[in-house]
């Protein structure tokens, strides 16, 4: 696998086509147009791709952000059928390397709090944290992954100074169940100053088959995150069984 930055129009058009393959087209067209990416590169950003020969396996787009010293990851995707090749992690590690070379100390991005696989990758594999919840960040989206519901987002903050570490053994769930989710099973547990918050294992499929339940999940998860962040907690990891670990700010990370 080759991981490189690209800047030619044929290359960025291929990236735009990949993003369209993953998210589909909306009334506004492709998720990210090639001319916009070309301008972002000219403004000091980067388009990073993963390739196997001529085959495009994935891509990620990075731009300078705020606060000072922060880069912002606009979009990242892996080609369908290649999700278990480690492409996503390779792209993010290359983004980290590029960002450090260009004077950035952290990378920020937003992600859907209900997509457990992505949340675990962002928080437990990469080591980012989240303490900011954006309600209806993109309004109501209508692409192939987001369905027709309000597009809430968590803000990931990835401190680039520590060297990435191999995954550690997972900490077992603790605490007592205190509330049930829209599917009737426990989705909130409390453990001293910490909490565990469950999300669906596959909300993308749920949005296609049971959109009303998926919307109900968004509502209850939104309420819990806003309350937890208001109480000073931080999302510091996600278990393999789709439970977020919300811990006091500054506490040691415990879910990997």
Question: How are the strands of the biggest sheet laid out side by side?
Answer: 1-2-3-4-5-7-6
What is the helix tally? 6
- The first-to-last residue Cα distance is 25 Å
User: What's the total number of strands?
Assistant: 12
Query: Secondary-structure element sequence?
Result: EHHEEEHEHEEEEEHHEE
What structural class do you assign from the helix and strand content?
A: alpha+beta
In short:
The protein is α+β, with helices and mostly antiparallel strands. It is built from six helices and twelve strands.
Q: Which characteristics define this entry?
A:
12 strands; alpha+beta; 256 residues; single chain; 30% helix; five-stranded antiparallel sheet; 6 helices; seven-stranded mixed sheet
Structural commentary:
Helix content is 30%, strand content 30%. The strands form two sheets. A seven-stranded mixed beta sheet has the order 1-2-3-4-5-7-6, with helices on both faces. The chain is α+β, with helices and mostly antiparallel strands. The radius of gyration is 18 Å and the shape is globular. Helix 1 crosses helix 2 and helix 5 packs across helix 6. It contains six helices and twelve strands. The model has no long low-confidence stretch (mean pLDDT 90). The longest helix has 20 residues.
